[in-house]
Amino acid sequence: MPLPLPDSDALAASHALQQHIATAIQNSGGAIPFSRFMELALYAPRLGYYSGGAAKLGASGDFTTAPEITPLFGQALARAAAAIIAQSAPNIIEFGAGTGKLARDVLTALASEGVTVERYTIIELSGELRARQQEALADFPMVEWIDGFPPRFSGVVLANEVLDAMPVELVIKTAQGWRRQMVTIEGGRFAWVQQELDPLLAAQLARQVPAADSLAEGYLTELHPVACGFMASLASMFAGEKGAAILFDYGFPAHEFYVDARVGGTLMCHYRHHSHPDPFFLPGLQDITAHVDFTAMALAAQDAGLEVLGYMNQAGFLLGCGIGDLLLRTDPNDVVRYLPQSKAVQKLVSPAEMGELFKVLVVGNEVELPGAIVRADRSGRL
Question: Which residues 6+ apart lie within 8 Å of 227 measured at CB?
Answer without folding.
Answer: 163, 166, 168, 292, 296, 297, 300
